[in-house]
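User: I'm preparing a small set of examples for a lab meeting where we compare how different chains pack in three dimensions. I only have the primary sequence for this one, and I'd like the structure in token form so I can line it up with the others. Please keep the answer compact; I'll paste it straight into my notes.
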Amino acid sequence: MKKILSSFIILMLLISCYLTVNAASYNFNFSGPTEATKGQTVTLTITATGLTGKVALSSTNASLSSSSVWVEKNSVNITAKVTGFPAKITATPSELTDNEYNIVNLSSKTITINEKKTSTGGSGSSGGSNNSGSSGGSNNSGSSSGGSSSSGSSSSGGSSSSGGSSSSSKPNTKPSGGTSSTQSPDKNYVPNQSDLENENVHSSNNYLQSITVSAGNLSPEFYRETFEYTVENLDENVTELEISAIAEDERASISGLGLISLNEGENRLPISVTAENGNVREYVLIVNRKQKIQESDLRLQTLEISKINRNGEFTKLDIPFEKEKFEYSVDVEEDIIDLDVNPTVEKEGIIVETTGDKNLKNGENIVSINVISQEDENIQTTYIIKVNRQSAMQTSAEVVKMDETWKIVVLIVELLILVGEIVLYVVTIRRASKK
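Assistant: Understood. Below is the structure token output for the 435-residue chain.
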């Protein structure tokens, strides 16, 4: 009896250890600085302990070194150039798997970077000095006398101190020969309070902070020094586009915003930014409005599709084609890289164009077969084939899960056998005691 109980305890311990060892152990983190100066490039770190897969990246008021990264149970660094505040960078896990190839659903993480405050002014002590500028250069002057107050003066844009403290006077907006604090027109000039009080100072900042559109999305991602963009993923039914933008300097004026009517074909939509000092900068949005496709009675007669693997071998796909059915779905293996599409049409004079059948990627691929009238290219019929290409990771995960299932089944069977032996032993002991 003791031997059987010992065996039962050992089996329970083995099951417990097995479940503990195979339990998912992972961690996902996204870290980086929370303060920066405008135009600064910062380094951010994605940490994926016990995780493998893709992490997508997106940003607001920042230009990223990459839109996505691949992690394999490690840490990966990316860089971001801060273009405005607050800058927000978001890391979104996409199909991450743990050590047992199980897909893990994790929420995204966001880092918010605020503007780093720079200290202004200064302080002095008894016997200290103050800075003063003069025509043709700058010099330091000051006096001290025990605990008494000291004062200094300048002829142009100077500052004075009294009792060991200093305060800045209004800057000289028209320096002569000396150094100037005014930034060049190509820099992001942010005036201080003294500049705002001086009506003679006019900002030269004519950069935009952001551009948004009511439909589609900008490509590339907005950056203040990128001046031409394409509006992508625009639905063919969109005939108007509302454009809005924000200037870096609130004193700048913007034209070219609002609801814009789109013509068929290419539309170039300029956005002009006029700085307070009159300097003008132009951004351009390129919008291609497709002509609306008319429904037609054009049909395919037959459709045969073969899959092609990495060795160039062809295998026919079994697709039950019907000329009035316009969408199909098929699954292919990870080693399939292309499809061989062979359609036939009902009559001559019909153009057939196929897209998306080459260089298949993991996951869903859309193959379009367009049947086009030779007389009018806007008269079309489109057949869609959704091709799901399995990844090696998915295949491995399925094999691993099957193997794990069998291990658990074996453990349960062994447990049942052991329980049966215990019951049989107890019954035998009771029968023996009755005799």
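A couple of notes for your slides: Residues 208-289 form one domain. The CA atoms of residues 309 and 406 lie 31 Å apart.

User: Perfect, thanks.
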